[in-house]
Structures are given as C-alpha cells and as structure tokens.
Amino acid sequence: MEEKSSPVTGYPKESKGSAGYGEQNLPNYSRDESENEGVILENVDDLKRRLSGRQIQMVTIGGSIGTALFVSIGSGLTQGGPGSLFIAFIVYSCFLGLVNNCMAEMSVFMPVSGSFVRMGSKWVDEAFGFMLGWNFFLYEAVLIPWEISALNLVLTFWSDNIPLAAVCAACIFLYGVINLFAVKWYGESEFWLSGGKVVLIAMIFSFTFITMVGGNPKHDAYGFRYWREPGAFAEYVTTGSLGRFEGFLAALWKAAFTIVGPEYIAMMSGEAAHPRKNLKRAFKTIYWRFGVFFIGGALACGIVIPYNDKKLIAILAGGGSETGTAASSPYVIAMQNLGIGVLPHVTNALLVTSIFSAGNSYVYCACRTLYSLSLDGHAPQFLRKCTKSGVPIYCFGVTMIFPFLSFLAVGSSSAQVITWLANLTEASQIIDYICMCTIYIFFFRALKVQGIDRNTLPYVGWWQPYCAWAGLAAMIITVGCYGYTTLLPGWWDTERSSPTIPWYLSVQFSTLDGKSSRRLK
Asked: Which SS3 state, helix, strand or coil, does residue 519 take?
C-alpha cells in the first residue's frame, strides 16, 4: 500500500515512526511580510534554536577548515605540482558547488533536525536514509580522534616530550565541557576558535604576497619562479603526459579530502535561529569561502615552495616524526627556507586552535546525526532524550566514546594512526555528497509531480535539476576512480584501499535495519 505524503513537505501525513514529522506536527510558522518567507519559531523535537547568524557563519568555517589545508596539502603539491594543485582545487570546488546548490534549496525549505540524513529517509527510501545516516555519523565520529592525533603531532613541533595521553585526555575533557551545555555556548566557543583559522589564513596569504615580491630576509623576489622551475605540473606514477595527468588526479583527491562545507551548514538546520534567513545566507557565502580559503590556499602553497623541495619530499616519504606536524607544512618549510624564525611558531600555535576547532565541530555533528537517526527509528529510541537546554545527552555520551581512540597514538606511531583514520574516512564524505544529489533529484521530481512551483520556495537553486545530475556524476566519478593506483603493479597498499570500508559497512548494516525498503512516492 502506498504511503500518502503531504504535498508541501513530502513527509507522510501520519507517520508514527518518523518522530513526529507528520503534517500535523510541523514546526510553527509565522509570516515575515518584508521577505514573504515563513519564519520557523521552534522545533517539534527537543533541540533548541539558539545558533545565531554570526555563530553559524563561523561554525561553518570551523568545521570545513582543518589540518588538510595547512599541512596535508603538501602531498598534493609534490604529486601534482602547483598548476595541477591549483586547477584541481578549482575543479573540485565547482563539483562541491553543485552539491551546495542542491543542499541549500532543500535545507532552507525544510530546516529539520538531521537535515539531509532525515530527508534521505523521507524523500528517497528508509534504507537509503539508514545507510546515509550511519555513514555520516561514522565519518564524523572517526574524525574526532583523527584531529586529536593531529593535535598531538603538531605539538611535537616544539618538543618530542609532549605527554600524548595528557593531550588526549585534555581534548576529550574540553570537547565534553563545550558540547555538554546549551548549543549557544558551543556556537560561541566555535565562533572564537574559528576566528583563529581566519587569522591563520590571512597570515599565510600575507606571508605569500610579501615574500614573493621580495619582502624576506634574502630579499629574493621569487614571484612565480617555482611555476617555471621545476614547473607547474609534476609527474606521478608514470612519466610524460600521462604522468602529469595522474599527478592532477592525485591533487584532485587531495582536494576532495580538503574541501568540505555544505554538510556542516545543513547539520545546524535544527538549531539555527531564523533558519530561513541565516541558513540561506550561510549557503550563499560558501562559494566565496571555496574561492578565498581553498583555491587561494592552493595557489599560495604552489607559490611559496617548489614541488620538488627536498625537505618536503623527505618528510612525506620518510613518514618520520615530522610527518603531520607543522614542520611538514609547505608554508612552514618555506618560512624556514627564507630564514624566517618567528612565523613558524606562530603558525604552529594557530594550527593548534584550528585543529581543536575542527574536532569540536565533529563532536557536534556526530552527536546531532545520531540524534536524527533515533528520531527516524534508525537508532535506539532512548537516544532521543535531551536535556532542558536541548542537548541530546545520550547521543553525546555515545559520541564521546570515539575520542578515546586517540589513545592509540600512545602505543604506536602517531603518524601511522593518523594515516589509518584518514584513509578510513576519505571516501565517506564523497559518498555523502552523492547521496545529497540523489535526494535532491527525488525532491525535484516530487515537486514536479505534485504541481508545486519551485519559485514559491524560500530559496531556489540555480539550473536545477541539471546541477544535481552533474554533481551526482562528478562525485561518482571522483569516488569511483579514487585509489586506482592500488590496482597497478607494485602499488598495492592495504591502507590506501581502506576508504571503501565505511561504505561497505553502511550498506551491510542497512540490510539489518529490520524495516522493509520502500521508496516513498
């Protein structure tokens, strides 16, 4: 028997298993006469809308910018060269812009707790939502110890005698304190922590420009010298034109691990004050973030250091104690090459706040994802319990188990632990983007079938549904070709093949959901 849906929301009119998101339990609306948009006053669940517009903007930066932009980007430079790195970041930013275009329209229209995780269940299929939710939860949860391990490594820039266990314990305690209380305090802490990332990016851009025109101890106006010698495009795996193309692919996959964004805005949908206004603004500004932070960062990286820098290659190839620290950052190496003694320490200090901020955002997103899974019946119902201040307390407790994985760094090489965790999550985020585009295609079809004019929506994405199809194809190609080098003779590496694990486990778990897979029409 077909399940009837509300023509406005796409949610079942009577759906006892969907945590109250039937038509009779929709959020209250008032009408903003100046903008002719519905303004959501409060949720039907127990989360509280306490995140202000300025907090949302900074939380988005905090979650999307982490270690990769400042440290790991060096591997993309050595494999692809500055030209390939720059082009790859532009290309992938365009790919992700297509996804953002889809997510913005859906999230602003239906700013519910869990956002795309719950949309997958309601607009596509229950099993699809189950798979998507658990995939995203595991992705975010595993990134928490990844960032703590990265923080340990960054601290070793100053001393090798840093007590790793103490750092892990301190991070876990601080994450717990920040996320245990009302969401507005999380938003406020992230506002200031993310400010450190903005300062770091501004400092790196200033360093790049000033030194390239001769403002350095050597008075060397090197400009774009490294784009000419050794060149803009490096060879990777093979030689010649094919090798340069494979170098571009390596840089593209580094961009895929570095550039993120729309999912973090979407996950704040259920706790954003005035979501129709604040979410719309956040989604619109993400495009210039791609251009300034990520594309600008890739350009700066290729300017300040050649892709064949001996120290950078030695650190990345050796996998020693400096791998993953500020010492392996191409910017820090460039500062040291120019004889600048203070900036590397300032950079490392700001990296500490940057990494801590990213981990803080992952705790928040993982907790809210698990809560949304429980609302849709895809996780135990006891996880729906919230405190009076709107914090899903049991979801928080489950999420805080994952940071303890960071203690693995105490008994083995920190760099190796980071490699394992990073490889485990790299493909998961691309799979999430594939799912977002898929959800939009179903959403667009539902609007068309039910005769709803998209121009009546509070936000209308550009060139739909072509953007959704293009984004879907781009992400499928990206994840489908990822790790192809493991299939080449002499290149097999079990660690590099592990990103498929989250996808495989999610699909397997979805078969154990206990629900019949039924697509809503």
From this structure: strand
